[in-house]
Design brief:
Helix 1 runs parallel beside helix 8, helix 2 packs antiparallel against helix 11 and helix 13 packs parallel to helix 15. Helices cover about 85% and strands about 0% of the residues. The model has no long low-confidence stretch (mean pLDDT about 85). The chain has a two-stranded antiparallel ribbon. The protein has about 500 residues and is mainly α. The longest helix has about 35 residues. The protein has one domain.
């Protein structure tokens, strides 16, 4: 299989899975105008802190079984074996999730005193009630992991995004009902999430039943845990790096700072959507592609193309983010006026996700050679850097300190993983080309920060057009790539008509 055909296959599935994740994250963008135009900074700060803990506990609820299930399910050839794996994993998650939820539900009062500081607890918000809602959300979310992973493993990407889309529709609808109709306050945000999680699970029951058999294998469970548990510190550390900054901000800068920063981090999800779309397709793709003779050449090119795509998104969005958030829809701006200062962290959050994209690329060797024992060391190192930099930078830089702490953590993780992975499965990445890319992006970004550019949208468009031209002049593109791009352009309807005339 040629490099371009193989890359096309990866990006096809990345696009489809990306649509699914975009639908899922679309909740954030659809609800930004509603939440930020109605609720104050302190209230959104509470939402940010609670969702931070929800993300952390999502990892604890699955404790690596999701990762192990995905790998063993893909590599298992027989349908009977696949059913055994799914049934064992699902029943285990069902039992443990019920236990975790029961403990959190009945301990909501003391838990609220542990996770919130006195300033936050003084707000007129029923924090124990929010915790009870979250633990039930976690229960249903954990049960939907296996059917979603099975769809990914079977490359049924259209069905995958269908269920993601339903989840979004339900969530947005119930947010509108609770917040606009019933005036439920921020409790309505969590009630809407609960309905979305519960109904998504019920709609997925046919998927589970079709792939389920009443088989519970202790041997299979032992294999799943042996492979998956080493991933728990890793995935938990990654989750902490994306969420723990809210906890530090609440303690060191106050809950209102969390409200501002959380909205900036949500805008940073534009880049996260792209990277996550790639990650969804990357694991099954490189497992299959690694059997090809030219696999390393393919992986080399993919790394270059992924970073090119990331930095293209970076340039466009950092230039226009302040204009995007001020778009008025039905009397609501995309981001409420009280939260406009949040855009200061967006370029830094974008940069953090680009280093995460590099981390995702470098994981090939560890995955192929089953060296998951290295992952806890790598991710815990990143987490420790994140904790240290949050603690030291937030008192000095406020929300910018939290954003840069995330960047430093991903730099450490990507660097360590690169060193280890190169020893296991060396790939000659195109560092000279990538250096050209980084320099050009830095120049474009610097030009975009100048005052005479920031207030003039036409000049921003000019900078966007200059970006590919500078890449071309620098010799970034290879002849084969230019030829391929020329063929693609010629096939465009408008260009084709001009050539015909």
């Amino acid at each position: 299989m040629s490099i371009f055909i193989s890359v096309k296959r990866l990006f096809k599935h990345s696009a489809i899975y990306g649509m699914g994740h975009i639908f899922n994250r679309l909740i954030v963008f659809l609800l930004l105008p509603l939440h930020t135009n109605i609720f104050r900074e302190g209230e959104m700060g509470v939402v940010g802190v609670v969702f931070a803990y929800l993300a952390i506990f999502t990892i604890i609820y699955t404790y690596g079984l999701d990762t192990a299930f995905f790998r063993f399910y893909i590599l298992e050839d027989s349908q009977e074996g696949k059913k055994r794996i799914l049934s064992t994993a699902f029943l285990t998650i069902l039992a443990t999730s019920f236990f975790f939820t029961a403990v959190l539900y009945f301990a909501a009062e003391p838990v609220s005193h542990i996770i919130f500081d006195p300033e936050t607890r003084a707000l007129p918000i029923n924090l124990p009630y929010l915790i009870r809602l979250v633990c039930v959300i976690l229960f249903f979310d954990a049960l939907t992991f296996m059917p979603f992973l099975a769809l990914r493993a079977e490359e049924k990407s259209v069905l995958f995004i269908f269920y993601k889309f339903l989840n979004v529709i339900i969530n947005v609808a119930f947010n509108a009902v609770y917040i606009l109709g019933l005036k439920s306050g921020i409790e309505g945000i969590f009630l809407a999430n609960l309905w979305a999680s519960m109904l998504t699970f019920l709609l997925q029951l046919p998927l589970i039943v079709k792939r389920f058999s009443f088989i519970y294998s202790k041997v299979t469970l032992k294999e799943l845990l042996a492979f998956g548990l080493p991933y728990l510190p890793s995935t938990l550390s990654v989750s902490l790096m994306d969420t723990i900054d809210r906890v530090f901000l609440e303690r060191l800068s106050g809950v209102e700072a969390v409200g501002i920063y959380s909205q900036g981090a949500k805008l940073g999800m534009f880049m996260a959507l792209f990277v996550t779309a790639f990650r969804f397709a990357w694991h099954p793709y490189f497992l299959a592609t690694s059997k090809q003779e030219n696999a390393k050449d393919i992986f080399q090119k993919i790394f270059t193309y992924v970073l090119l795509a990331c930095f293209t998104v970076y340039i466009v969005l950092t230039l226009f983010i302040d204009d995007i958030i001020k778009i008025n829809i039905g009397g609501f701006t995309i981001l409420g006026k009280n939260f406009w200062d949040a855009t200061v962290v967006v370029p830094v959050i974008f940069l953090a996700y680009i280093f995460y994209a590099a981390y995702v690329n470098f994981i090939i060797g560890i995955y192929l050679y089953k060296k998951t024992k290295y992952l806890p060391f790598i991710t815990i190192s990143g987490m420790l850097v994140n904790l240290l930099t949050n603690y030291t930078l937030i008192p000095v830089w406020g929300i910018m300190g939290a954003a840069w702490a995330r960047v430093f953590a991903y730099i450490v993780m990507a660097s360590i993983l690169y060193i280890i992975s190169q020893k296991l499965y060396p790939v000659k990445y195109e560092w000279i080309r990538l250096l050209k890319l980084v320099v050009i992006v830095a120049l474009i970004y610097f030009a975009g920060t100048q005052e005479f550019v920031r207030d003039h949208i036409p000049l921003k468009f000019v900078l966007c057009l200059i970006f590919p031209f500078m890449l071309y002049l620098s010799g970034f593109f290879e002849k084969q790539e230019l030829s391929k791009m020329h063929q693609i352009v010629k096939r465009l309807p408008f260009i084709g008509r001009l050539n015909h005339e």
